[in-house]
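Lab notebook, design round three. We kept the backbone fixed and only want residue identities now. Task for the bench partner: fill in a sequence for the structure below.
Input structure tokens:
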């Protein structure tokens, strides 16, 4: 009888019934990699109180929750060798889903978290959650030249959430994160403090949000995104002010992408103030100390509404697209090139905006919504003019019926030189007598234009990368001089000069590629046009 009962109890196991979820508790000094390797989907690995010193990357299996007791109690110190395989502390397994990292205080001398395992053509990540952590990181570089970030995501992903984290005290890492191919992603409610750059969202797909984030003591950008035609990105309720050593590339949010999808900016607060104890960074080419733009607003369409711009910026909105709609925003201060500026063939359609003295500007909204300690996820009130209420509600901007005024590309003798490029031609391709397009000619033109655009983007990216490296070495040189370390100062200066030379070389390549693209665009518009345009541009 008892044997029969035993057999009955084994039937679920024999039929493949799922095992019960396990909880694995870790204490400092225990084998973290071994415990993680033993975990299965549905399990929870808990880092207890104390500091965990980890010297090599740890892979988190799919479906596992990794948690601490709180960021104040559970500390992880990644001391990594660096290089291609050992630059990130936590590696999330390829093709993982429903995996969580939460409630931890994490420091890495290089990068902290990476989502890059698996086949980039067939695998993807689903529903990865990184929430309520403290993250500090040192950065670095891989053998292919790519940089190391606090968080790196290079694979297609759906449902990624990076929320309520505290990214802090990482001024030497080039970017906070770099996230490729995000779909249905929430990069919301995070606090950024004393970091070089808020991060980069590369080629996002649909329904991506960077909202309700709170940033101070940032040197370069709040956020940057290279968008694509299928992109749909929202920037709502963000607050950024008190910048660290600002310079002409200190920009609120930059959207790059000639073929961008829909981009919305709503109810954000940006102030061009310098952080206490900080000063100006490098000046522009004319020797002027200044900030960059609040929004480089490229989108088809791009909607900018309900935002508060405080202080003196190069411009509040600079657009390279022809259908950027700007309404119901308030400027407390001025834009050196005008508040709303079309550039490189772009134009701004604007109405119902207001401009007031900087003396009347509201203070930044209090942070009652972002970071590990704040519980708010879906706020229902909007930021008031005084800037004292909680995060704005998540709403989709809708363009009201109005007769806008249009601001196209402008130039000013007092402003730094701006390059103006003709907009892309929209003339239909030539047709044969039968009405069919001349496929071979069109294909060659299209391929030539694509290659010209690729070279232009590559040269621009390389130029910016070398400029950033030169600026970083300049910082190191000044710090070494202040510490009377002549050897370190000499080394940093040599590196700076080398990077500056490379940046100049890429700037020349960028100019040549831009001219080639202009010639190809003219050729597409009028097949009788020859490459003489390039010579004229020279």
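Proposed sequence:
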């Amino acid at each position: 009888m008892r044997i029969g009962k035993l057999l009955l109890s084994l039937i679920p196991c024999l039929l493949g019934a799922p095992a019960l979820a396990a909880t694995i508790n870790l204490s400092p000094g225990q084998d973290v990699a071994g415990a993680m390797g033993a975990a299965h989907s549905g399990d929870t690995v808990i880092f207890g109180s104390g500091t965990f010193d980890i010297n090599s990357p740890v892979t988190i299996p799919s479906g596992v929750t990794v948690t601490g007791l709180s960021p104040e109690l559970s500390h992880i110190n990644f001391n990594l060798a660096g290089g291609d395989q050992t630059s990130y502390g936590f590696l999330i397994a390829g093709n993982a889903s429903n995996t969580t990292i939460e409630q931890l205080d994490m420091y890495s001398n290089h990068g902290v978290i990476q989502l890059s395992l698996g086949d980039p053509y067939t695998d993807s990540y689903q529903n990865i959650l990184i929430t309520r952590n403290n993250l500090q990181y040192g950065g670095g570089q891989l053998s292919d030249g790519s940089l190391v970030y606090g968080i790196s995501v290079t694979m297609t992903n759906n449902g990624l959430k990076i929320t309520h984290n505290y990214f802090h005290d990482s001024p030497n890492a080039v970017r906070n994160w770099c996230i490729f191919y995000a779909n249905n992603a929430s990069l919301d409610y995070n606090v950024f403090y004393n970091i070089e750059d808020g991060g980069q969202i590369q080629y996002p797909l649909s329904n991506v949000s960077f909202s309700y984030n709170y940033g101070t003591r940032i040197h370069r950008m709040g956020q940057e995104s290279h968008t694509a035609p299928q992109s749909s990105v929202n920037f709502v309720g963000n607050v950024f002010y008190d910048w660290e050593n600002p310079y002409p590339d200190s920009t609120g949010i930059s959207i790059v992408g000639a073929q961008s999808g829909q981009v919305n900016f709503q109810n954000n607060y940006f102030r061009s103030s310098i952080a206490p104890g900080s000063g100006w960074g490098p000046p522009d080419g004319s020797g002027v100390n200044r900030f960059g733009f609040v929004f480089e607003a490229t989108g088809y369409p791009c909607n900018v509404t309900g935002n508060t711009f405080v202080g003196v910026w190069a411009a509040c909105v600079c657009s390279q697209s022809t259908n950027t709609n700007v309404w119901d925003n308030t400027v407390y201060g001025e834009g050196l090139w005008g508040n709303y500026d079309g550039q490189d063939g772009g134009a701004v359609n604007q109405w119902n905006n207001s401009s007031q003295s900087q003396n009347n500007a509201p203070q930044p909204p209090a942070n009652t919504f972002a970071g590990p300690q704040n519980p708010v996820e879906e706020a229902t009130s909007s930021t008031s003019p005084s800037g004292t209420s909680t995060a704005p509600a998540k709403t989709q901007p809708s363009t009201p019926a109005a007769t806008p005024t249009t601001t196209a590309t402008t130039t000013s003798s007092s402003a730094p030189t701006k390059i103006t490029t003709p907009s892309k031609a929209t003339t239909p391709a030539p047709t044969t007598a039968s009405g069919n397009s001349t496929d071979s000619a069109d294909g060659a033109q299209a391929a030539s234009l694509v290659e010209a655009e690729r070279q232009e983007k590559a040269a621009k990216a390389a130029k910016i990368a070398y400029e950033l490296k030169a600026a970083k070495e300049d910082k190191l040189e000044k710090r070494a001089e202040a510490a009377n370390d002549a050897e370190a100062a000499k080394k940093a200066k040599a590196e700076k000069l080398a990077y500056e030379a490379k940046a100049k070389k890429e700037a020349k390549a960028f100019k040549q590629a831009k001219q080639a693209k202009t010639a190809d665009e003219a050729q597409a518009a009028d097949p009788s046009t020859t490459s003489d345009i390039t010579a004229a541009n020279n």
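Keep this in mind before ordering anything: The two ends are 96 Å apart (CA to CA).
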